[in-house]
């Protein structure tokens, strides 16, 4: 998969996806035609979106917001006092501390790894810089629970805080590395040359000129990592480190009183929403455009001198623990397994089930995302903005909370759906709607609006324009979004665990069960199958982008 | 006939000066009109309102008596029968050339559609290109196909939005001539929006100069160049020499630092004003020629087909520009005489 991804990346989720968090569409990134009549992209605010788009878009938005609303209702069901007792419980505060502590450690480690690797691979004369850069993005393809499994299988004593922090760091540092590397490539080297000619040495230049410009990218990446860690379920539960997600799962499984689980979920959602808001703020203030026209020359790579060997060792070390080790460990356990431990029927069944639910999830998500994405790309104004933001709600919702909300909802209002496939597919749609909406929006934005104008002047009504011009042009991007959604659905763990129909196992749930029971050799085939299956669409996506 | 009438059109984007401030424009049926103006003058806004992509605040637009925009009327673009040729063509990249051209041909049977498509391709000189994809065409070819696409449904009006802007200058003249021929052949009324005065003068039947949201002058290219309504227009549509002048001889001539100049139009009661004359109306002459004023050459700018000689003359703060065809007889610092030929205009 290519390191630089034109499609806006999905939010971090219970599983990884290989996209670049630095390329998220800024909320103000839309054409500013309203105040610039002479601009190439002009105001469309005056034109209302056709009803046939608005209605399904509203359905999608309502769909995305439903779990959030229902969660709040459920948490307060037995009175705010009861919910408050759960939230203010000593154990909740302890969980809060553990969650935040883990997040802080992982974010700090990811910043160190991500920024150092980005700088080494983009700006220095490191031998094989490009290859190291590509290797540093590979961990994105490893779900956190697979990483946890490989470490746990090799070093069982690592379970707990250390193991959780290690596994999460090694899978999420590319979220920092990718945007920082992109930002480094975007900085005009002439600025650094100017600083040098004004009497600053290389180190002072880096600290005073380069680093401040990397801050928005690094902060954006760090917040994605934080969001990822907070909502992660697989790695922490396998490492038996209690955080919010694991406590919610345990509480849900252990008791028939579901208010505590709901109340804990609300706290978790509040934390993630606060993080998303903080991220939006840093993005809003990031005004680091290049001043002046002209194209930037590529920077002259900085010679490393006697730092060459240590730099190489650092890159090799990170690659070894983040890429080589998981693969090696997986290979070892695959080889250690015998045909007796390999449950081929189970493997085939799980693989088949995984493909089925992921395809259904991707299909529904893409369908719901289409109207929202088109409106977000082509229409401005309050309504359009609100619709888009509602669809992005899944961005802030950890998988476990969405699953809980849907369980509650189904038990109360749609019992026939409880523990049935449609509910799981709905959970995927809520969780990954942002992935598909972002892809659709980007794809539609790439189709020049002038083509739609021309089509209308040639006698086409708006809906036919959509069908004959906009959709065919956006199709490759939308398909890429669908493939990406397919991959993330396949890797999703917490919602799948809670919502899967009785007796159905996906690769992820089987991997989780086997690892939890300590049967590493039995778990390994599922991990390998998952990585292989996820690699196919990822590979196709990479080809599509290049 | 499909004459275009635009009356008292206004449009503003939020607070600040309106982009269109009561613009009036009439284009006779079958004519090619150029809307010429500096960037930001509102010409593109005008085009988008006529096409139906933008709503005017007030005003009316009619084509052949049919109201497109008016009080309570806002025809959607697809019902206007107004074709558009956008900048850089904007061909549908996912459709072949033939399907691009046939895009607007709805309600015809297949054979008829095919015939019309081929006819249009032939009209723009690209017969046999139907199976290509847009990216396989050069910029000029894409522009011609965009025109064929716009003309295929026989629109009553065609709008061209700086259509030659993206083409390099060598290609431009050829494409421009072909577009003119094609438009003539179909008899559609056409409006060409441009900021390039050469393009406007050379391709249009009438040119409307737009300034600050209004039509400052609308005339044939020759009249516009010869009789500009004010010095700004004179300078915008070509090189102009501005001279202070005093009216004499009963309004037939004006006295200027270059001597008496014949006025093309009566000065309208003005006694003094600015006389506008074109550099090619000035001639270099021997210093002792009877009707010549003496001056010193300050600068010479050579263009190949001609040259611009700047001459400092007594009574003028700035040197006057003289366009000289053929071989250059003179260099900076030399003395020369300057003589005026033809007629000039006088403005307040």
Could you explain how this protein is built, in words?
The complex is a heterodimer of chains A (546) and B (348). Chain A folds into two domains: 47-70 and 337-546, MetI-like (MetI-like fold), CATH 1.10.3720; 89-254 and 306-325, MetI-like (MetI-like fold, Orthogonal Bundle). Chain A is 71% helix and 0% strand. Chain A has helices at residues 51-75, 80-87, 90-123, 129-135, 144-154, 161-172, 174-186, 189-197, 202-231, 234-238, 244-254, 259-285, 308-336, 344-378, 382-391, 399-413, 421-446, 449-457, 462-491, 494-499, 507-516, 520-545. The longest helix of chain A is centred in the middle third of the chain and has 35 residues, at 344-378. Chain A is globular. Chain B has helices at residues 43-51, 97-101, 110-123, 139-151, 169-186, 197-203, 221-226, 231-237, and strands at 4-11, 20-27, 32-36, 58-63, 66-70, 73-74, 82-85, 157-161, 189-194, 206-211, 214-219, 241-248, 253-256, 259-263, 272-277, 282-285, 293-302, 306-313, 320-325, 335-340, 343-347. In chain B, a hairpin with an 8-residue loop joins strand 1 and strand 2 (20-27). In chain B, 23% of the residues lie in helices and 35% in strands. With 348 residues, chain B is of the alpha+beta class. Chain B: It comes from Streptomyces dysideae. Chain B: Residues 4-237 form the ABC transporter domain.
């Amino acid at each position: 998969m290519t390191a630089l991804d034109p499609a806006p990346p999905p939010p971090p989720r219970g599983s990884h996806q290989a996209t670049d968090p630095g390329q998220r569409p800024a909320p103000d990134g839309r054409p500013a035609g309203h105040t610039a009549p002479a601009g190439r992209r002009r105001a469309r605010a005056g034109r209302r979106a056709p009803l046939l788009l608005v209605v399904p878009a509203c359905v999608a938005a309502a769909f995305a917001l439903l779990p959030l609303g229902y969660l709040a209702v459920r948490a307060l069901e037995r009175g705010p006092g009861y919910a408050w007792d759960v939230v203010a419980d000593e154990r909740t505060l302890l969980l809060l501390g553990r969650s935040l502590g883990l997040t802080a450690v992982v974010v700090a480690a990811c910043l160190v790894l991500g920024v150092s690797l980005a700088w080494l691979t983009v700006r220095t004369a490191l031998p094989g810089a490009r290859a190291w850069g590509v290797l540093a993005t590979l961990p994105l393809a490893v779900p956190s629970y697979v990483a946890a499994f490989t470490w746990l299988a090799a070093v069982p004593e690592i379970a707990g805080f250390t193991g959780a922090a290690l596994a999460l760091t090694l899978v999420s540092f590319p979220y920092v590395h990718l945007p920082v590397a992109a930002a480094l490539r975007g900085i005009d080297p002439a600025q650094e040359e100017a600083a040098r000619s004004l009497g600053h040495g290389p180190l002072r230049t880096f600290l005073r000129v380069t680093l401040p410009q990397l801050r928005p990218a690094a902060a954006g990446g760090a917040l994605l990592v934080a969001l990822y860690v907070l909502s992660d379920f697989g790695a922490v539960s396998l490492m038996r480190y209690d955080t919010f997600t694991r406590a919610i799962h345990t509480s849900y499984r252990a008791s028939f009183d579901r208010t505590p689980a709901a109340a804990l979920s609300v706290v978790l959602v509040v934390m993630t929403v606060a993080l998303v808001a903080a991220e939006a703020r840093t993005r809003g203030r990031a005004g680091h455009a290049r001043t002046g026209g002209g194209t930037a020359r590529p920077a002259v790579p900085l010679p490393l001198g006697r730092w060459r060997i240590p730099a190489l060792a650092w890159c090799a070390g990170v690659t070894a623990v983040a890429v080589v080790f998981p693969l090696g460990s997986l290979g070892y356990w695959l080889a250690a397994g015998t045909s007796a431990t390999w449950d081929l029927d189970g493997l085939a069944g799980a693989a088949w089930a995984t493909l089925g639910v992921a395809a259904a999830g991707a299909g529904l998500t893409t369908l719901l995302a289409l109207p929202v994405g088109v409106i977000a790309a082509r229409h401005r104004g309050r309504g359009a903005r609100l619709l888009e933001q509602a669809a992005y709600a899944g961005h802030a919702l950890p998988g476990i909370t969405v699953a809980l909300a849907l369980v509650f909802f189904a038990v109360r209002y749609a019992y026939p759906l409880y523990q049935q496939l449609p509910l799981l597919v709905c959970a995927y749609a809520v969780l990954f709607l942002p992935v598909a909406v972002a892809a659709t929006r980007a794809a539609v934005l790439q189709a020049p609006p002038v083509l739609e104008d021309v089509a209308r002047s040639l006698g086409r009504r708006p809906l036919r324009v959509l069908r004959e011009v906009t959709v065919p042009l956006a199709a490759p991007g939308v398909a890429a979004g669908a493939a990406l959604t397919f991959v993330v659905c396949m890797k999703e763990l917490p919602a799948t665990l809670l919502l899967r129909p009785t007796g159905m196992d996906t690769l992820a749930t089987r991997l989780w069960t086997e690892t939890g029971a300590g049967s590493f050799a039995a778990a390994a085939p599922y991990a390998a199958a998952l990585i292989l299956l996820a690699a196919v669409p990822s590979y196709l996506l990479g080809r599509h982008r290049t | 006939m499909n004459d275009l009438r635009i009356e008292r059109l206004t449009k503003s984007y939020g607070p600040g000066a309106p982009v269109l401030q009561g613009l009036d424009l009439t284009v006779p049926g079958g004519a090619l009109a150029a809307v010429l103006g500096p960037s930001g003058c509102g010409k593109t806004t005008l085009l988008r309102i006529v096409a139906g992509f933008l709503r005017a605040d007030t005003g009316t637009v009619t084509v052949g008596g049919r109201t497109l925009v008016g009080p309570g009327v806002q025809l959607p673009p697809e019902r206007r029968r107004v074709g558009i040729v956008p900048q850089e063509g904007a061909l549908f990249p996912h459709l072949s050339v033939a399907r691009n051209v046939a895009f607007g041909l709805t309600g015809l049977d297949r054979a008829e559609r095919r015939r019309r498509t081929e006819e249009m391709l032939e009209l723009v000189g690209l017969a046999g290109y139907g199976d290509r994809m847009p990216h396989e065409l050069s910029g000029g070819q894409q522009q011609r196909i965009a025109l064929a696409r716009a003309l295929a449904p026989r629109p009553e009006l065609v709008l061209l939005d700086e259509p030659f802007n993206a083409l390099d200058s060598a290609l431009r003249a050829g494409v421009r001539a072909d577009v003119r021929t094609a438009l003539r052949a179909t008899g559609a009324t056409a409006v060409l929006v441009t900021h390039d005065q050469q393009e406007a003068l050379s391709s249009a039947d009438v040119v409307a100069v737009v300034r600050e949201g209004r039509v400052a002058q609308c005339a044939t290219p020759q009249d516009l160049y010869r009789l500009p309504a004010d010095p700004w227009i004179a300078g915008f549509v070509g090189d102009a020499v501005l001279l202070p002048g005093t009216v004499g001889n009963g309004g037939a001539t004006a006295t200027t630092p270059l001597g008496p100049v014949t006025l093309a139009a009566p000065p309208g009661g003005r006694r003094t004003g600015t006389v506008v004359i074109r550099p090619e109306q000035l001639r270099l002459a021997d210093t002792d020629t009877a009707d010549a004023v003496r001056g010193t050459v300050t600068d010479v700018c050579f263009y190949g087909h001609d040259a611009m000689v700047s001459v400092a003359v007594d009574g003028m703060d700035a040197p006057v520009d003289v366009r000289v065809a053929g071989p250059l007889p003179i260099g900076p610092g030399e003395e020369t005489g300057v003589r005026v030929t033809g007629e000039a205009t006088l403005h307040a």
